[in-house]
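Changelog-adjacent note: as of this version, every example in the card shows the full chain rather than a window. The one below runs 178 residues end to end.
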Amino acid sequence: MTDEELVDEHRAGRADAFDRLVERYRAPAYRFCYRMLGNHHEAEDASQEAFVRTFTGLARFRREAPFRSWLFHILANVCLTWRRSMRDKPGAFATDPPAERQPAPIELDEFQKQLQAAIQRLPDKQRLTLILRVDENCGFEEIARILDITPLAARVNLSLARRNLRETMPPHLLEPCR
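Full-length structure tokens:
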């Protein structure tokens, strides 16, 4: 069944329809929140909060965009709210590796840590655009719908994010990538 068919089933009273949507998007939602927040527990809590908001707002879903775009819009808003609330907490942006992560060579491990830290320092719109494009394979039209911006603004945000990452990453870590 498509996402929209599951939404219709949920609206018609089938209790398991929303559960199927959650199951379909649980991993992508967690992955997105983890990339935005950099912490396993925060990502779990934020993705769960986003699903609660999705459930309570499903009656208002108008299909102006695909369900996936609408869900990622909610995920983005939840993550931005969490990041704003975390700014006041000491050690708020400490990152931790996902549980399923495999050991990596020292150089690659150092690069990944530095890259994750650099991504966490990007401005919100640039970080969101980068994660949606690279991790979620969203096109610029979908990114524009999710973030309420134009496709051109999505392209500019991605370009700025990449430039900022190149400028903030230690040069010795970028040498093998050139």
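Structural remarks: Residues 96-104 have pLDDT under 50 and may be disordered.
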